[in-house]
């Protein structure tokens, strides 16, 4: 068998595709999961955060550790309980892993953690955010700050650590594109709110290949804006309708209607997030498979 990659949150959107690509490259893949379910070609180990438990053998012989676990920020309304789950599922999980790595004196070659474009705030307006831009001060930026801080607990053990601040992932398997494209397929595509808010995007295969390069290339370290480009919500909607050969529904969906329907969670689609992948461009030799938004949408939606 090849080198072992242990993944938390392996059954999510990134995790499933990343697993396929890793297996194709000859890696051994294992998951940390709350349930002992069977996954083809993957060894599944159980963990229980509340009981401070990770199944024996999970961490042993791990060459790379990938942290993708986390409750979806757009799954439900942001009640106090849901907010607690969003944070705990990202932070407490990796804190437990760090604690067990230290206890067992296990040191993977690298630790790659998911992070979010919301590090810079739910709505950073027209600001072009590089990795050196300051963090925001709202709920989602707080989530990302404490998420990255938890990842630092692994870095402090002497493990090379990479954090990938990811925006909207383009895929037909799930995520924001599937939700935005659904009404467009019915001829009801419409910009959300003003439509002027920026979305930073990346194709699913590109973000998965980014994880693999971050694992394999020892020069990668610290935080990266893991995106391809940025587009306004209005232009994104227009392009989706064009690719689907569907008309765009004339009126915008008003912001107040989204806030009535989704509460505070509406900030996810109404906020503006323009990221610049400065470190990817200047410090790595990463090659995007899908550098063009129109081409990405055509590959996925057609």
TrEMBL record:
NCBIfam families assigned: yfcH (TIGR01777)
Domain DUF1731 positions: 253-300
Domain NAD-dependent epimerase/dehydratase intervals: 5-218
Taxonomic classification: Bacteria, Pseudomonadati, Bacteroidota, Cytophagia, Cytophagales
PANTHER family: EPIMERASE FAMILY PROTEIN SDR39U1, SUGAR NUCLEOTIDE EPIMERASE RELATED
Protein name stated in the entry: Epimerase family protein
Residue ranges, annotated region (Disordered): 117-136
Family, per entry: Belongs to the NAD(P)-dependent epimerase/dehydratase family. SDR39U1 subfamily.
């Amino acid at each position: 068998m090849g080198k072992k990659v242990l993944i938390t949150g392996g059954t999510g959107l990134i995790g499933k595709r990343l697993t396929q690509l890793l297996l194709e490259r000859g890696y051994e893949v294992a998951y940390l999961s709350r349930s002992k379910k069977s996954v083809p070609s993957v060894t599944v180990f159980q963990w229980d955060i509340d009981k401070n438990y990770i199944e024996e053998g999970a961490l042993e012989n791990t060459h790379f550790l990938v942290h993708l676990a986390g409750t979806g920020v757009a799954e439900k309304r942001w009640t106090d309980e849901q907010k607690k789950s969003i944070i705990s599922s990202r932070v407490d999980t990796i804190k437990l892993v760090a604690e067990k790595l230290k206890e067992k004196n296990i040191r993977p070659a690298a630790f790659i953690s998911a992070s979010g474009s919301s590090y810079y705030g739910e709505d950073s307006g027209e600001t072009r955010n590089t990795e050196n831009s300051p963090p925001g001060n709202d709920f989602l930026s707080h989530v990302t700050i404490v998420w990255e801080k938890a990842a630092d607990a692994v870095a402090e053990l002497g493990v090379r650590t990479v954090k990938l601040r990811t925006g909207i992932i383009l895929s037909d398997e799930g995520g924001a594109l599937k939700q935005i494209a659904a009404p467009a397929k019915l001829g009801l595509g419409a910009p959300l709110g003003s439509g002027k808010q920026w979305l930073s995007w990346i194709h699913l295969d590109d973000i998965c290949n980014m994880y693999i390069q971050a694992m394999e290339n020892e020069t990668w370290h610290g935080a990266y804006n893991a995106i391809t480009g940025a587009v306004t919500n209005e232009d994104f909607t227009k392009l989706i309708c064009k690719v689907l050969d569907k008309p765009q529904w004339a009126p915008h969906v008003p912001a107040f209607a989204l806030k009535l329907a989704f509460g505070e969670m509406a900030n996810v689609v109404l906020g503006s997030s323009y990221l610049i992948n400065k470190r990817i461009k200047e410090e790595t030799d990463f090659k995007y498979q899908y550098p063009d938004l129109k081409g990405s949408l055509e590959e996925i939606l057609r």
